[in-house]
Structure formats: C-alpha cells, structure tokens
Amino acid sequence: MERGIFNSNLLEGNYIPQVHAYYYKEWSQFKMNYHQHNSIEIMYMMNGACRVDIEPAQQADKLQSFSLKKGEFILLNGRTSHRLIVEESCRMLNVEFSFSPVDLPLVNLKQLTTEETALQQLWSIPADYVVLRDSEEVYYRLRSLIFELDRGNSDSSMIMQMLFSQLLIQIARIYTEQEDGVRQHKDYYIKQIVAYLHHHYDQNIQVKDVAAAANLHPSYMQRIFKLQTGQTLMEYLNTLRMEKAMMLLSQTDIPINDIPEYVGVGSRPYFHALFKKHTQKTPSEYRKHIKHQG
After folding, report:
1. Do the Cβ atoms of 192 and 213 come closer than 8 Å?
2. pLDDT by residue (tens digit) across 154-184?
3. What is the DSSP letter of 264?
C-alpha cells in the first residue's frame, strides 16, 4: 500500500469515510509516548499551544517537530508514529477516520476529485502528514460532523457523506492555497473583506465597518480591493445584493416591496434603479419573466 496521507487507490473504487473516534481533550503539562494507530487523524488546536513530534521512520531520518497554536491542525496518516508534548496547556479536537468500501456510495470520491481540482493535490500529498492553518471553516465543519455523529447518524447516511465531503474539500483548498503560495497579505485581506460582505450584505454597511473588520485603514482597504478585484467596494456589494435579490425574486414568494430590506438597500427607489441597471428589468418584470420561463 502506497504511503502518503491518502491512498490514491481509493479513487478507483467506491469508498466512503468512516469515523472511528472523536473527542475533545484538555491537556496540561503532558508528555505522550510515541504511538500510532491505523486511522487517519486530524488533531485540531482549539486553544493554547502544543508540540507534535513525528518519529523518524528510519534512523537516518531527522525528527520532525511541529508547534501548533490556536486554529492550526495536523492531518496525520495512520501508522505514523507520533507523540504530543504540552508544556503548559491546550485544548484539542481529535477525529480519527478511514475509508471503507461500499456497494453504492451517495458521494463518490472519484467524482468529487474530478469536480474539485484542489482534491487532486490533497490526494497527491507525498508525506504522511501536513500542518495547516485554518480560517475557522475546518473547525465549523468538524463541529457539524461531530454533532451529527452524536445524533446517531451513521457514516453511510447522506448527511454524513455530504459533511465529510465538505470537510475534505475545505482541507484541500487550504492545502492548495498554502502550497501555491497565495496566502499573501493582500489576498488574505481581500478574503476577509469579501467574507464580511457576504455575511452582512443585508445590513447598512459602511466602508469604515468593513475596514474595521479587516483591521485596515479605509482608504488603503479600498485601494487594494479595487486593485485585486477590479471593482470598488460598493460596486462589489451592489452586485452581491442584486444577485441575492434575483434569487429571492425567482425562488421565493416574498413581496417585491420587502426585497430591498432583505438585501440591505434602505430605499425602494434606489433598489429598483440598481436592479434595473443590473438586469435591464424591473423587479416585477424579472419575477414575471422567471415565472414565464418555469
């Protein structure tokens, strides 16, 4: 069996992830002996700091040691000897899993890898471990996974397969970004800005609010945003709001006069003007057009 975190042979058959263990643990001044287990393991640092040592596979190899801080995690292959060292204290979330063959999976790993290019790099990791920095997306997906396990959902359920697929894709994207060297300061800030806009578009957003969320000076933020995206902050926000309005008009029965409030545009005339500019139709014309197409 080939080494690496994931075995590429998994893409040749029908496999689904199977969770063997998951637990939260508070560690304090602890030194673990070297050990290994058959499962792939995610060791996610929630608070504090620790060190993970990877025992050399051969005497000629060097000891690999990694310091983990809050928001960092190590993805570790099964049968890789390792130990945990905690000088002061830390809190960790651990999930151990493997892949099991099934007759007809609801989510096919091979298809996922074909559609999500980042997974191709994840499956080709040559080492038995990788240390990554999370933007809280992995942690949220781990928590959702554990919540469903606690509710008694089986590994083969559609919900579990979807959650695990999302987890693998998010880890793959983080790994790809780290390997490709795109986590430069401007890109990092742009992601923060875009995330803030997507989470608050229904509110009365001001430039100073976005700048504060990204910890940037407002003028500098606007300058790098235009440079990186080709749009001003307000152009991006207005486009986002109109896309959300189009979705609400086409997929819900929310009254047209209420839509502006749902997308954060306080003035109805201004909303109608923005929507007409974006779609060449009034909100009423757009809803009628969509219903006619259906």
Report:
1. yes
2. 887 888 888 999 999 999 999 988 877 645 6
3. T
